[in-house]
Amino acid sequence: MNEQLWGRKIQSELDSSSIALPALVRDRMDGVYSQLPDFATKRANRKRILWASACVILLLAGIFAMGFVSPAMAKVLRQIPVIGSAFQTVGDAGIQHAVERGLASTVDQTVEDEGVAVTLDQVIYDGTRLSIGILHSSDITILIPGSSEMIRADGREINASMGGSTKALADGMTATIYKFTPTEPLPERFKLDFHFNEVSMNKDGRSEKIAGNWWFTTPVVKITEGVTVTPFDPPLIREHDGIRIAVTEVTTTPLTTQVAFELVEPAMFDSMLPGREVVPKGEIVVDHRLDYELLDSNGLSLEPLSMSWSQKAGEPAKVVALFAPVTMDVQSFTLRTIDRVDKMRSRGDGSFDGASTPQISYAELPLDTPISVKQGEAGEIVFKSILFEKDQTWIEYEVRGTEPYIQDGAWWLENDEGEQYRFDRYDRTRVSQDSYDYKVKLPAIPSNESLKVAVYQIKSDERKKQLDIQLPLNR
Amino acid sequence: MIGDVELARRGDKEAFIRLMRMLELSLYQTAKAFLHSDEDCADAMQETALRAYRSVRSLKNPEYLKTWIVRILINECKRVLEKKRNIVPLQPEYEPAMMDPGYARFELRELVDRLEAPQRSVVLLYYYGGLTVKEIAEELNVPEGTIKSRLYKAREILGTQYDRLSKGAENL
């Protein structure tokens, strides 16, 4: 057989090969697929509506926190979960705040099918978003069908953008939160149906899909206490550099601060534009993306939670930006627009790689005196104290600068052997509302170890202050 | 496939998953060209799926989907290697072994597994990853001539063994 023919024979034989993915890889890929977030589409009128959601980022953060590690099996499926713990375990700043005020409803409803038990733990709805906390064995992964198939209000499917996060608890249990931002307001009171039909069981490194019917029904009452809606009619408008922002409403709740606005932006900010010309391979392009921060009357930035937008052809985009709730008396906000800039390297096929590698700086970590470490253009981080305990290590620190919600998690500790001590965002608690002071729990570290702190150098993106909009609140 | 690529670009998650399932085996074999363990391959493939899902809407030409995802995967494999301070497995791990000629049920894939590591990597990237000789040379930082030579040698070994096994099977 000549080489050309033999080459084709090899290709053909390999293509028809009956080998399958190893169970470990199969399991891990199924895990990824089940956790991919939805890009919701509006089904009602079938008009083309594009949804992009920063919930993706939150979900991915959750996925990374979970680590996708298939837990060792031999755990029992039915264990007694810690009822009322989902929101505390994996809730964002708003959810944690609402729980502290006793505003979350504990459902404690367990459905078992095909030998798999799942508990609907907590629910909360404040008019801006619906959050559902569940508890289940770490041996299973819930295969989510999409928001409209997953939740109903009074029997009607809910069209919503969706995000979520998950984290393993002790004793083989996992807490998962699904967060839905409905495109239309839900009733003040409604019967919530929450359901899914498939889970993936991870057993001895293998993954097995189990079809079943896990259907939960519970009444939901919208939070009204502490909810203030401030509509702007006509909208508050700013225009600059071809960007037009028209704020239509601000809602403050114990769970969320929501800003709704219409946006017109030049094409340079739409990096997902499908018709974008193919850039030659290796060429660097500068990618611009508009982002927003919400400042309270003290000039402090509220933690961003998620952002979703929809757009009909020929109309401005409708953007809904969610931030953490305010915990102090605030009379007004300032919505500030940020031009996020990233350098991207073309792959020559319409896709891009990030072209900037973040720089890391190291500093010795003294155990007795505070130390300040620069975080690049963005600002600095001040390590104030360290406390070694048998099972964990506590560190108090403060970030100062323009990107507090990037700076706050952009560091870790390292010992002389290069062993890293890291944390996820659920191990971190903000301890002051008038500064960016945090207390974080790291793994146990021997107190005699020589430690250094590794800090990412963070750039500070341009604030377009000409677009600042003051948002007075109804109080 | 092109239809699913279009759907995936519009945000259809199920279409994206269908595409990934179709490409999984090729991606796995491509990852094996760089990484030793299935654990590492799974890490690279997972990250590839996430990155591809995040940016599939920026993919302009649907016919480039596989090339595009393979590129992401190779980058991820290199990151895994860098993280683990591993070495790209281009050094021989074991000598090619001849299979028992009387073994009737075999697949060419098994013969590929028995190639020396440098030849095996090239075969995996060429036939599964769909990379050209030039692209493989760039990825492995080896001259094109060396890649051609490895590919030629691999085909020769595979051809010889395949013929012997086929004859052995026929004689059973």
Describe the structure.
The complex is a heterodimer of chains A (475) and B (172). Chain A contains seven helices and 29 strands. Chain A has three domains: 199 residues, bacillus anthracis domain (Immunoglobulin-like); 141 residues, Immunoglobulin-like (Sandwich), CATH 2.60.40; 97 residues, Conserved domain protein (Immunoglobulin-like, Sandwich), CATH 2.60.40.1640. In chain A, strand 22 and strand 23 form a beta hairpin. A six-stranded antiparallel sheet of chain A has the order 1-16-17-14-13-12. Chain A has a five-stranded antiparallel sheet with strand order 2-3-4-9-8. In chain A, strands 5, 6, 7, 10 and 11 form a five-stranded antiparallel sheet that branches. With 475 residues, chain A is mainly β. The longest helix of chain A has 13 residues. Chain A is globular. About 9% of the residues of chain A have low confidence. Chain B is mostly helical and 172 residues long. Chain B folds into two domains: 83 residues, Rna Polymerase Sigma Factor, Chain: A; 63 residues, Arc Repressor Mutant, subunit A. Helices cover 69% and strands 0% of the residues of chain B. Chain B contains eight helices and no strands. In chain B, helix 2 packs across helix 4 and helix 2 runs antiparallel to helix 6. The radius of gyration of chain B is 18 Å and the shape is elongated. Chains A and B meet through helix 1, helix 2 and helix 3 of A and helix 2, helix 3, helix 4, helix 5 and helix 6 of B.
